[in-house]
Design brief:
four-stranded antiparallel sheet; 30% strand
């Protein structure tokens, strides 16, 4: 499977809230990519049940980079 770019992961896609666990808000994009938003980084922000994925790109990118550093395909 070819590696997807961040742009492919977010363009025209939505991200939906799926759970809160381990002090993180977890969202899932339309294509099934799950990523956390640490609650410490959420302070002062408004996090809805659904967002355009591009608005959460910061955390998508962080999680992709973490997975890649662990040798896991995003």
């Amino acid at each position: 499977m070819a590696k997807r770019s961040i742009k492919e992961m977010i363009k025209g896609k939505q991200a939906r809230f799926v759970r809160y666990t381990d002090e993180s808000l977890w969202y899932c994009t339309d294509d099934g990519f799950e990523f956390p938003i640490p609650i410490e980084e959420a302070k002062g922000g408004v996090f809805k049940a659904e967002h355009k994925a591009i608005r959460l790109m910061r955390w998508i990118r962080q999680h992709v980079n973490l997975l890649e550093s662990e040798g896991v395909e995003a």
